[in-house]
């Protein structure tokens, strides 16, 4: 069987669109703000409309368009447990105008949400296989729902290995999760940082240096990766060397985007609109998209 | 829904564009197809003009300083506040203690009105325009040589040129319509010789590119002239021209072989360049701010004009701001009256004394840079700035900010709360070119209509109205009707004779015709100045495509702003390696006056020994590194080619 | 749809469009200044400038406005979102066939796979009366190479052909039928001579075009990414980055979205035309730009215009041969020039056998 990213059950503009106009967001309230790193925060959001909140469903790998009123809209991936229905979380790095405004939000503030958008990690099709997750920096955010989903159905998967690299120990996202996961005996977590400090006892180097420390059965494992483009490139090359077939290397791509419904044109790679046909692609699919220059 | 034909207010090309508005919002914009400049085309700034101008943070109400803060107030209050402050200063220290700086972004009528206000209402000779910071050195130089203080030919002449000598202009980015026509010319077989230390996107269209040492233009220009004269490459009648012998005499003693050291140029290449332009008439000699902001820029322009005159060619000035030509035409300079009549000329003074009903002193007032120095020293007690973000556009940012802070009274009129407006005592909210009527004069000397598309944003008013209100507070009747002001200009300034709004509503404007001046060659003396040792690098400052006029407007467009999100500086790879600095790391660029920090990238287009620093607005501008040193003749500061050193930032 | 030819006598044109104007806003070519023409609201039928050549500013903006408010919101404690899009019925009269073909392309794009509500609203309220070009209006026109003119076989609402003192009047859609019906009494049946006159125009069309573009030839190279990066970079090195090619392209759809503060303190979410030729179009917040060079952006534009993938997706290639990218370009990156250059340069890359087949 050839593995492909999963089609979502719900998709804004196709199955899910509460108002008449798919460009108009739903209102959500900031319930909690968690400081992750000096430039990253996680926001816990719940819809104001309780009926809508009940029906709101999404899958790991999908994302939302978040409106910070007065500043604009930005696409952000879901970062929480998909089985948690009373709220969802997004993790935001402060970089542009909208994310800067988002970092200034307080508990109780309102934001606009459109979504869910995009496709999802093929978690169903991966059942029975070993799972390798390779992630860098804030690239762990879109993978966190997948990790939580796998852990919730842990028996259905084989070996589970997470490799994570951050710039410095202070830049580790979800420290509390990483520490908790590391203690579990049903998964293996290996971490590295580019630049260490006195407190850091672990590996120093880019995330690919962790590959020397583990044994992965390239033929029976599915790899999910997300991180900076350059990391994805080198991780993919390593995985191919380890015997992964192109369709078992699955990646979430990032692109500048505006509309989320395949109209504004910013996220288009070749003829593929990342917001509706992505952001999750297998390496087999990506090879066909020469604009990705892999 | 209706379209209004107006003239773009970004660069000096002066494209005609139609702007459509509905309910006070711009709903459409497109270039005129039949206009002699725009030709159905616009550059990126033109296409994104309206969001840049209509940013959310446009000033909507006048502001006056109460203690630490600027507070919104009424027009009456702001005008009274300004007028009483000025009256008090006049009473205590005399009118000469007031300085006024205008802008080359505003309309001809507004520039003229400001001059009239300064000279006749306030009675101060200290009136100058923003061109002093950019390209004012071409005025004395061209008045002395070609007699036309501006371009001698229209843009349509470019594709027909046999050869083009282009000096110190990144024309493809600054003046897209000139660049586009140079490309057409090159396709038609025109020989394009570019002289610029740094290679730009013009390169694919050039026959020869010389990379002289920054700041050495005068030396190679003298060599060019020497070769033209020695090899008799000039036009037949050149030896009979006035000034020929003086020019020849001034060039004696040039050793062409020395060019290698003085200008980093191979003598053979220089010969080749001269031959290319001399043997392919007609020649157009173009120069931009790269030449106009160097040390001794007036001499440089004279030299370039000499080249054009000797070869029987013409001069084209590649100026910066949209109304640079018009602002100078109507007398927004410290030493000239409207129409380039010299203050020193008693007949000219008489003409304008009659029009303005005042006494005019023969001595020129202070230049813009002198005014800043006088603010610091306390000689000037008040400064009025209309439409120029002096805090960023003047050199030596640190000293300029201190001078503006120190002056007793500072009034600023602008669209946004610029770096200059923030420290003012009174801020007048001005309206943009989309919200007023008037005229701009483009790079071809073409007088063009600016038409009102929208009602002014908030309570903003045109500079013309603001000046008229200030005038009224002094008991002077000044017209706020642009049409009447243009009639006043055209009835007394010979170059604008016969120009009127009515005529401009019937056809595209025509370039004004220079009045009775004969080309004259000027002697070009050598100057030597070399700085090496402690500051081993030369700074090349440039402006990028997407921004203009200190970014006051362009940085407000989300499209323009996102094109250039981060500052950088460029060096040759060999230099970076020698200094042991990796691309992507930060460097500190240090001049005698100041320093700034940028991220380094390497580029082969920058010659060894140079560092290229594109302007970035919002406090990281290479202008900060410049000093108050100016060209001795024109008073234009030196923004280019000064010596700097580079350090890695840990 | 049955295809009927009728005749609208030019003497009846004023009455016909005056009657139409009672039902909807008329938009047509209007002369502005010194020969400049653009599509604008027509107050009187006399303002319709039938003999215009070609307009620089494409009529696509009546469906996809250059600047369009999407909705307004207040930003206080209570977030209130108000829609601002309220299109009125409109008829675009005298539009060229190529621009109608482009609108059909956009209609398809904005309807599939997700429907864009604004475009749909505008389109539902619009009926197009296109005018067949008896002679190409400009030397840059090459619609004949793009199956989008000088006349349309289908996809039009009402198509007019100038036959001297009369227009041949064809109805091509339900919308066209509905707009015709109340005025059908002004139409006369077309005679065989009228239809023959139209056939003559069609027969002579081919020989009248000065610009040709062998788009089909370039499609192979571009779709398969066979054009070497160097050719793209050479082309890109001359680009002025003005974005006019995409702004004025009647097919281009890309837009950007901004939240703008109004003077009353409310905010408007506004979409406006954007261009894939701008570096900022794809630059991510991290600073990474997947299309970092001018060459890669020029390649993007031509890939979108000509690749098989898009042709399959959108039913036709993304060029209607209007020639606007030629006239609006500050350099020479109009579609025919680029396609020609690719063909020529690719010729050097082809093995001899294929070269022979090419010729």
What this model shows, in words?
The complex is a heterotrimer of chains A (294), B (650) and C (359). Chain A has 294 residues and is α/β, with parallel strands linked by helices. Chain A is built from 7 helices and 15 strands. Chain A is globular and about 50 Å long. Chain B has 650 residues and is an alpha/beta fold. Chain B is 32% helix and 18% strand. The relative contact order of chain B is 0.17. The model of chain B has no long low-confidence stretch (mean pLDDT 92). With 359 residues, chain C is of the alpha+beta class. In chain C, strands 3-2-6-7-8-9-1-10 form an 8-stranded mixed beta sheet, with helices on both faces. In chain C, helix 6 crosses helix 9, helix 6 (215-223) packs across helix 12 (335-349) and helix 7 (229-236) crosses helix 9 (294-306). The model of chain C has no long low-confidence stretch (mean pLDDT 89). The chains are: A alpha/beta (294), B alpha/beta (650), C alpha+beta (359). Chains in contact: A-C, B-C. The interface between B and C is large, with 47 and 43 residues.
Give a short summary of the structure.
The complex is a heterotrimer of chains A (294), B (650) and C (359). Chain A has 294 residues and is of the alpha/beta class. In chain A, 18% of the residues lie in helices and 29% in strands.
List low-pLDDT spans of chain C. Answer: none
* Inertia-based shape of chain B: globular
- Please give the largest β-sheet of chain C: 8 strands, mixed
Overall average residue pLDDT of chain C: 89
Q: Helix content range of the residues of chain B, please?
A: 25-40%
State the secondary-structure class of chain C. Answer: alpha+beta
Number of helices of chain C: 13
The overall average pLDDT of chain B, rounded, is: 92
Query: Which structural class should the secondary elements of chain B be placed in?
Result: alpha/beta
- Silhouette of chain C: globular
SSE order of chain C: EHEEEEEHHEEEHEHHHHEEHHHHH
Strand order of the largest sheet of chain C: 3-2-6-7-8-9-1-10
User: Kindly, what is the distance between the CA atoms of the first and last residues of chain B, rounded to a whole number of angstroms?
Assistant: 57 Å
Q: How far apart are the termini of chain C?
A: 41 Å
Uncertain residue segments of chain B? none
Can you count the beta strands of chain C? 12
The quaternary structure here is: heterotrimer
User: Which percent band covers the strand fraction of chain C?
Assistant: 15-25%
Number of strands of chain B: 25
Largest interface: B-C, 47 and 43 residues
Strand coverage percent of chain B:
15-25%
């Amino acid at each position: 069987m050839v593995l492909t990213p999963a089609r979502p059950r719900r998709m804004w503009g196709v199955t899910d669109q509460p108002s008449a106009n798919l460009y108009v967001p739903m209102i959500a309230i900031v319930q909690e703000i968690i400081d992750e790193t000096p430039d990253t925060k996680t926001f816990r959001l719940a819809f104001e409309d309780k009926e809508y909140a009940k029906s709101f469903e999404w899958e790991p790998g999908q994302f939302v368009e978040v409106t910070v009123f007065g500043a604009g809209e930005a696409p952000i991936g879901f970062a929480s447990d998909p089985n948690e229905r009373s709220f969802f979380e997004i993790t935001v790095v402060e970089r542009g105008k909208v994310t800067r405004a988002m970092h200034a939000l307080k508990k109780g503030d309102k934001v606009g949400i459109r979504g869910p958008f995009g496709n999802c990690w093929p978690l169903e099709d991966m059942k029975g296989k070993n799972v390798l997750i390779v992630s860098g920096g804030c690239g762990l955010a879109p993978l966190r729902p997948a990790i939580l989903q796998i852990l919730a159905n842990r028996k259905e998967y084989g070996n589970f290995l997470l490799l994570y690299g951050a710039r410095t120990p202070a830049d580790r996202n979800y420290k509390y999760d990483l520490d908790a996961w590391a203690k579990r005996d049903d998964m293996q977590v290996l971490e590295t940082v580019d630049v260490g400090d006195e407190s850091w006892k672990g590996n120093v180097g880019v995330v690919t240096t962790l590959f020397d420390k583990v044994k992965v059965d390239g033929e029976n494992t599915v790899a999910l990766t997300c991180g900076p483009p350059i990391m994805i490139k080198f991780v993919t090359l390593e995985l191919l060397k380890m015997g992964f077939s192109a369709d078992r290397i699955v990646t979430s791509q990032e692109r500048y985007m505006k509309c989320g419904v395949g109209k504004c044109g910013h996220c288009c790679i070749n003829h593929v609109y990342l917001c509706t046909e992505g952001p999750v692609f297998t390496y087999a699919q990506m090879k066909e998209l020469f604009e990705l220059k892999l | 829904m209706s379209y209004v034909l107006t003239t773009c207010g970004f660069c000096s090309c002066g494209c005609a564009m139609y702007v459509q508005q509905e309910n006070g919002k711009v709903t459409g914009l497109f270039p005129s197809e039949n206009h002699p400049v725009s030709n159905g085309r616009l550059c990126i700034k033109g296409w994104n003009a309206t969001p840049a101008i209509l940013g959310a943070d446009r000033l909507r109400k006048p502001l006056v300083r109460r203690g630490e803060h600027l507070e919104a107030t009424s027009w009456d209050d702001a005008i009274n506040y300004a007028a009483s402050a000025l009256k008090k200063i006049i009473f205590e220290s005399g009118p000469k203690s007031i300085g006024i700086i205008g802008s080359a972004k505003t309309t001809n009528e507004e520039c003229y009105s400001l001059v009239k206000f300064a000279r006749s209402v306030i009675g101060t000779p200290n009136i100058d325009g923003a061109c002093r910071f950019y390209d004012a050195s071409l005025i004395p130089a061209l008045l002395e040589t070609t007699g036309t203080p501006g371009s001698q030919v229209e843009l349509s002449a470019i594709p027909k040129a046999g050869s083009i000598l282009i000096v110190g202009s990144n024309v493809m980015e600054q003046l897209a319509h000139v660049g586009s026509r140079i490309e057409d010319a090159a396709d038609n077989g025109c020989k394009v010789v570019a002289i610029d230390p740094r290679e730009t996107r013009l390169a694919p269209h050039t026959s020869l590119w010389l990379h002289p040492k920054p700041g050495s233009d005068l030396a190679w220009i003298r060599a060019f002239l020497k070769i033209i004269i020695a090899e008799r490459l000039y036009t037949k009648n050149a030896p009979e021209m006035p000034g020929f012998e003086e020019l020849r005499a001034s060039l004696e003693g040039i050793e062409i072989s020395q060019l290698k050291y003085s200008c980093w140029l191979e003598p053979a290449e220089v010969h080749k360049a001269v031959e290319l332009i001399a043997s392919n008439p007609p020649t157009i000699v173009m120069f931009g701010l790269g030449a106009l902001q160097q040390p001794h820029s007036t001499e440089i322009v004279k030299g370039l004009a000499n080249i054009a005159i000797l070869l029987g060619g013409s001069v084209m000035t590649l100026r910066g701001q949209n109304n640079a030509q018009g602002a100078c035409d109507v007398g927004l300079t410290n030493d000239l009256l409207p129409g380039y009549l010299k203050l020193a000329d008693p007949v000219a003074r008489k003409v304008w004394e009659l029009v303005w009903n005042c006494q005019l002193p023969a001595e020129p007032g202070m230049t813009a840079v002198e005014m800043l120095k006088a603010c610091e020293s306390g000689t000037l007690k008040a400064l009025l700035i209309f439409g120029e973000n002096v805090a960023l556009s003047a050199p030596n940012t640190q000293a300029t900010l201190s001078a503006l802070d120190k002056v007793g009274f500072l009034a600023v009129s602008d669209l946004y709360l610029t770096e200059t407006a923030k420290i003012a005592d009174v801020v007048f909210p001005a309206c943009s070119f989309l919200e007023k009527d008037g005229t701009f004069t483009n790079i071809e000397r073409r007088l063009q209509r600016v038409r009102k598309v929208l009602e002014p944003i908030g309570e903003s008013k045109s500079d013309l109205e603001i000046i008229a209100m200030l005038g009224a507070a002094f008991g002077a009747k000044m017209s706020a009707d642009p049409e009447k002001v243009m009639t006043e200009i055209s009835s007394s300034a010979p170059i604008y004779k016969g120009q009127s709004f009515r005529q401009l509503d019937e056809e595209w404007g025509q370039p004004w015709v220079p009045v009775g001046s004969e080309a004259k060659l000027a002697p070009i003396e050598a100057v030597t100045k070399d700085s090496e040792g402690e500051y081993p690098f030369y700074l090349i400052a440039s402006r990028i495509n997407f921004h203009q006029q200190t970014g006051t407007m362009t940085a407000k467009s989300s499209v323009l702003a996102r094109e250039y999100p981060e500052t950088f500086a460029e060096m040759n790879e060999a230099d970076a390696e020698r200094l042991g600095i990796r691309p992507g790391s930060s460097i500190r660029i240090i001049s005698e006056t100041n320093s700034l920090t940028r991220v380094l990238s390497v580029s082969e287009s920058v010659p060894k020994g140079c560092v290229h620093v594109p302007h970035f607005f919002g406090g990281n501008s290479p202008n900060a590194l410049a000093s108050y040193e100016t060209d001795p003749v024109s008073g234009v500061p030196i923004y280019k080619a000064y010596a700097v050193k580079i350090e890695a930032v840990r | 749809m049955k295809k009927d030819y009728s005749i609208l006598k030019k003497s009846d044109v004023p009455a016909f469009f005056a009657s139409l104007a009672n039902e909807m806003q008329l938009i047509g070519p209007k002369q502005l200044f010194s020969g400049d023409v653009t599509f604008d609201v027509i107050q009187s039928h006399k303002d319709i400038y039938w003999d215009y050549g070609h307009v620089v500013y494409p009529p696509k903006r009546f469906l996809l406005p250059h600047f369009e408010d999407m909705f307004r919101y207040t930003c206080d404690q209570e977030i209130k979102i108000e829609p601002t899009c309220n299109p009125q019925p409109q008829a675009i009269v005298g539009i060229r066939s190529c621009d109608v073909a482009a609108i059909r392309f956009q209609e398809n794009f904005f309807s599939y796979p997700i429907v864009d509500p604004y475009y749909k609203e505008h389109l539902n309220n619009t009926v197009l009366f296109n005018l067949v070009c008896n002679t190409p209006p400009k030397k840059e026109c090459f619609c004949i190479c793009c199956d989008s003119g000088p006349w349309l076989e289908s996809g039009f609402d009402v198509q007019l052909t100038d036959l001297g003192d009369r227009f041949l009047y064809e109805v091509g859609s339900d919308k066209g039928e509905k707009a015709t019906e109340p005025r059908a009494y002004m139409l006369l049946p077309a005679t065989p001579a009228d239809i023959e006159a139209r056939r003559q125009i069609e027969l002579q069309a081919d020989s009248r075009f000065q610009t040709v573009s062998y788009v089909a030839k370039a499609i192979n190279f571009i779709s398969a990414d066979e054009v070497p990066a160097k050719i793209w970079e050479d082309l890109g090195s001359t680009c002025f980055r003005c974005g006019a090619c995409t702004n004025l392209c009647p097919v281009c759809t890309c837009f950007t979205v901004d939240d703008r503060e109004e003077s009353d303190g409310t905010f408007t979410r506004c979409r406006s035309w954007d261009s894939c030729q701008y570096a900022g179009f794809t630059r991510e917040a991290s600073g990474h730009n997947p299309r970092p060079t001018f060459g890669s952006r020029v390649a993007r534009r031509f890939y979108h215009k000509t690749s098989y993938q898009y042709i399959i997706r959108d039913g036709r290639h993304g060029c209607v041969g209007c020639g606007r990218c030629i006239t609006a370009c500050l350099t020479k990156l109009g579609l025919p020039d680029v396609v020609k250059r690719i063909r020529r340069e690719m010729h050097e890359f082809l093995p001899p056998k294929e070269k022979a087949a090419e010729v």
